[in-house]
Amino acid sequence: MTTFEKIANILKDYINCDLDDIKPETTFESLKIDSLDMVEIIMNLEEEFSVTVEDVSEIKTVGQLVEIIEENRK
Amino acid sequence: MIIAGTGSALPTQVVTNDQLTEFLDTSDEWISTRTGIRTRHILGEEKLENLAAAAARSALEQSGVSPEELDFILCSSVYNDYMAPSMACIVQGLVGATCPAMDLNGACAGFIYALYTAQAYLKAGCRNILIVCAETPTKMVDWTNRATCVLFGDGAGAAVVRAGGEDLSFVLESQSRTEVLVGYNPPSNCPYTPHQPAAQPLFMNGQEVYKFAVSTATRGMQRLLAENGLTCDDIGHFVLHQANLRIVEAVRARMKQDKDKFPTNVERTGNTSSASALILLDELNRAGALQKGERIALSAFGAGLTAGAALLRWQL
User: Fold this and answer.
1) For residues B95 and B118, is the Cβ–Cβ distance under 8 A?
2) Diameter of chain B by CA atoms?
3) Same domain, B37 and B73
4) In this complex, do B206 and A35 lie within 8 Å of one another by their Cβ atoms?
5) Does the domain made of A3-73 have the CATH classification 1.10.1200.10?
6) What is the pLDDT of residue B287?
């Protein structure tokens, strides 16, 4: 599974949506995910990918989140 | 250690989210969905020490311990009107006690740190200790900063603890991380200390505080359960520091428990710092929601970063 697919699955479970609703260009705002949801999701991702993400405030889209996780995995 | 009585007091002035929109760019919807908070009590004409004394008197009355029988007063207070003397000393006078009294500062986790300290003092020979948590975090925040000032409320809680019964179990944790959450005292005008920074309001990195709160509260209580050979099902109530409803919900989800085992009052009180878990415990006690003999897990977390969890058996 790619990083995007893994993250999309975590998001799908978190907000109970269709996997098809989640594309790289999808914004978290359109998924009704607020800043505290973002922290919850990041905590799940930190565990899943063994990474630490310091600041989520600039992350607006699913694609940006994928990029940041991949950057932190290096 | 036995909790023999509890008390609490909130300021009479209630401030709604809508009232905050009169001077802040915020909304009831924004505040309530992100924090659960709908109203908070804020000191107006009243003084914090009088709330503290009212809470203390209620706890003393319920415990059957007279002020003269107290061996120690421990007060948890991050901020109040006095640099000196201690709030504990002021409360001592107001309730008519004569025992030694001192403050401690464990930030929002102060109630757990006070219980931990009290248990050690009981083992050292004290018989009756009054714990008071008196807080006015509304004086620590910048009321032009909508990210922080909406979160807090004022209040006081008290508990009389006595020697005897089962020991409480504790898991305490402190990490020195002032970059995440810090509040400074105002600068002085001492001429020999130049270049003091201007007054700075409370700073909080919400994301990091949330992570710390959820992870340490869950970890602390899980460790307490494991060390005592218990599971979540053995716990009657989980009484958490009332900082934010979303934090309580996140911990509850991780512990896989029903809502009724994680009571809340943050909706009405806002974050009252170290007083919050004790105020909630007193409200549950007064409502008859706690069964004699049930196990209660307490958990609080705050600046430091500091966290504490305690496991006790309710004896009232």
Assistant:
1) no
2) 60
3) yes
4) yes
5) yes
6) 98
Active-site residue, from A20, A21, A34, A55? A34
User: Using the beta-carbon criterion (under 8 Å), do A43 and B215 form an inter-chain contact?
Assistant: yes
B213–chain A Cβ distance below 8 A for any pair: no
How confident is the model over A7-47, as pLDDT tens digits? 999 999 888 889 999 999 999 999 999 888 999 999 988 88
Residues B225 and B117 in one domain: no
Note whether A57 contacts B207, CB cutoff 8 Å.
yes
b/e per residue B126-158 (b: at least 16 CB within 10 A):
bebbbbbbbbbbbbbbeeeebebbbbbbbbbbb
* Residue B139 and residue B181 share a domain: no
Same domain, B50 and B83: yes
The per-residue pLDDT for range B264-309, each reduced to its tens digit, is: 999 999 999 999 999 999 999 999 999 999 999 999 999 999 999 9
Task: Please check whether residue B38 touches A, CB under 8 A.
Answer: no
Question: Are B273 and B238 within one domain?
Answer: yes
**Residues of A numbered 3-62 whose beta carbons fall under 8 angstroms of chain B's beta carbons: which are they?**
34-36, 38-40, 42-43, 55-57
Domain boundary at B93, B128, B162, which?
A: B162
Instruction: Kindly report the pTM of this predicted structure.
Output: 0.94
List the CATH number of the domain containing B20: 3.40.47.10
Residue B28's CB is within 10 A of a number of other CB atoms, namely 15
Q: Does B250 touch chain A (CB under 8 A)?
A: yes
Q: By residue range, what is the domain housing residue B57?
A: 2-162
Strand locations in B25-168 (E): 39-41, 72-76, 101-104, 128-135, 155-162
Residue A13 is among the residues annotated as catalytic for this protein = no
Report whether B106 contacts B113 (CB < 8 A): yes
Residue in B closest to A38 by C-alpha: B207
Instruction: Sort out which chain A residues have CB atoms less than 8 A from B214's CB and list them.
Output: 40, 43
B33 contacts in chain A (CB < 8 Å): 34
Residue B207 is given by DSSP the state H
